[in-house]
Structures are given as C-alpha cells and as structure tokens.
Amino acid sequence: MALDRWIAFVILCVALAYAYAAFFTMDHLLPPFMQRNPIWPSTFPKVLSVLAILTALVILLGLEKAPESDKAPDIDYRCLPDYHLVPALALLALMAAYALLLRPAGFLLATAGFLTLGGAILGERKFHILLPVAGLATGVVWYLVEQVLGIFLRPLPFFL
C-alpha cells in the first residue's frame, strides 16, 4: 500500500476515535438548559469527525486518483536531500518557539514575531510589506479575541 494510503488509514483511526468521543461521550454532561439548544458544544467536533472520516476513506479507497499510469511516485525517497527540508524544519522549530513564548512574551510580540519570521523563512523579502501586514494581522486577531469574544490574552510581556 502506498504511503498516502497508510497516512489516510492512521487519520481514519484517529478520526473514528474522535467521532466516538464527539458522538457518545460529550453530550451527557451538558446542563439541562443547554440540552434544548440547536447547536451544542459537540456540534463542530461531530461535523469535523464526519468530514475527516469521509476524506480518509476517499484517499484510502483511491477514489481521488486518476487511472494508473506509468508516472513516477510523487515523493522519491532516494532524493530526500533535494527537497526543502531546512525551511520545513525551521518552521516546525518556529512553531514550537511560538508556543513556548506566547505567555512570557505576550500575544502581540510573539504573534508578530512568528508571522514575520515565518514569512521570511518562506521566502518573503519585502520587509516593508511583511512587517505592517504581520502587525495588522496580529492586532486584528488580538482585538477580535479580546474584545469581541471576551477571552483574555496577555498582550504584552509579563514584565510590562
């Protein structure tokens, strides 16, 4: 079986476990006043699990592929050093650093830094565009989460 089908199988197993949790274990703890709502806290996990199961089945059954041809596989493991592994690993390290720095550095500084460095890693060299876009996106997301949703995010570093 090809690598994409093995990955689809793993995703299918995880999605089935997630669907079991969403359909059978989440709703019995709801308070009585929420049981009459048309949308419950488990609605999005239910939809997400069904979509993940359907997508994994499509890949697992090979419904998304055209008929077999003499085309080479998408990923050639013998040429692995030719792929852009350094930017991919740098982005993974940047994501981990962002998660670790979110509380001490504050949301605004950590997110703006993540977006700026992530854009630079991906190849953006117009910093006169990258910095304002990262700053604006960070500010808009912080405003929406803080003011509209009412969820507190520490905007500045802990020492300020």
Key phrases:
single chain, 160 residues, 5 helices
How is this fold's topology laid out?
Layout: H1 3-25, H2 43-61, H3 85-105, H4 107-121, H5 127-148
Helix pairs in contact: 1-2, 3-4, 4-5
The amount of beta strand, in percent, is under 5%
Give the uncertain stretches in residue-range form: none
Count of distinct strands: 0
Shape: flat
Structural class: mainly alpha
Continuous helix count: 5
Transmembrane segments: 45-63, 83-101, 107-123, 130-153
Domain DUF1468: 6-153
Protein name: Tricarboxylic transport membrane protein
Keywords: Membrane, Transmembrane, Transmembrane helix
Brief sketch in words of this structure:
InterPro entries: DUF1468 (IPR009936). The protein has five helices and no strands.
What does this structure look like?
The protein is mostly helical and 160 residues long. Helix content is 62%, strand content 0%. It has five helices and no strands. Helix 1 (3-25) packs antiparallel against helix 2, helix 3 (85-105) packs antiparallel against helix 4 (107-121) and helix 4 (107-121) packs antiparallel against helix 5 (127-148). The longest helix has 23 residues, at 3-25. Residues 6-153 form the DUF1468 domain. The chain crosses the membrane at residues 45-63, 83-101, 107-123, 130-153. InterPro entries: DUF1468.
